[in-house]
Design brief:
Length: about 220
């Protein structure tokens, strides 16, 4: 991948109707070219194709990612979304978000299969870990450090601790590390440190387009 840094990832989780998402893509897309880094937007899977068409028409700098993919390849797996089915639409997939681990009982083995399927379809995994000891499948490049206590709580990790965990993770492998957990426009710059934390994964503060633009603008300072 030749992306520029910092990497700012918006994870909408199960939020937004198509109309809300389309408006967000318009508003943020119109500002994206001013940002020297990379913005990855991860909407619900239902809107990946329509988002892709919209971004293509607008020649947008926004890049699409998915919040998850199936552990299975195409076949008799009702309700699943195989990596190869969305490979033309997305460049990235979040894998191993703690909400997936907790609510859908995703084990290390399942997550390793998801990483394998993503990579076979040329989708880059953004692999979420909860601490410095979380198992990381081979060939993962992008790791998102997301401590559970910080997700959606308004209680972020300290930048110092996040950078220390990042250093520990990078001692385990040649990873690009991003941080997620209660990032907002005010605290975003403190987490970023080139070569240590090269990006942010943001849910709550990504939902409102103006708030997200503020986060992105502050991330370049
Ligand atoms: P938050 O969530 O930004 O709402 O804390 C982060 C995440 O779940 O990735």
């Amino acid at each position: 991948m030749n992306e520029s840094f910092p990497l700012v990832v918006a994870n909408f989780k199960a939020n937004k109707t198509w109309d809300e998402l389309a408006l967000w893509l318009d508003v943020v897309g119109s500002k994206a070219s001013e940002f020297p880094g990379t913005i990855i937007v991860c909407p619900t899977a239902a809107f990946l194709a329509s988002s892709y068409q919209k971004l293509k028409t607008q020649n947008s700098k926004l890049i699409l990612g998915t919040q998850d993919i199936s552990r299975f390849e195409q076949g008799a797996y009702t309700g699943e979304l195989a990596a190869s089915q969305i490979a033309d639409l997305v460049k990235y997939s979040i894998i191993g978000h703690s909400e997936r681990r907790q609510n859908f009982a995703e084990t290390d083995e399942v997550l390793a299969q998801k990483v394998k399927n993503a990579q076979a379809a040329n989708i880059v995994p953004i692999f979420c870990v909860q601490d410095e000891n979380t198992s990381i499948p081979d060939q993962v490049t992008y790791v998102a450090y997301e401590p559970i206590f910080a997700i959606g709580t308004g209680n972020p990790d300290t930048p110092q601790n996040a950078q220390m965990i990042s250093a520990k993770l990078r001692a385990r492998g040649d990873y690009i590390v991003i941080y997620g957990g209660s990032v907002n426009a005010q605290n975003a710059p403190a987490f970023l440190k080139k070569g240590v934390i090269d990006g942010l994964l943001i849910a709550t503060s990504s939902l409102d387009p103006q708030t997200f633009i503020q986060v992105v603008q502050n991330s370049t300072q």
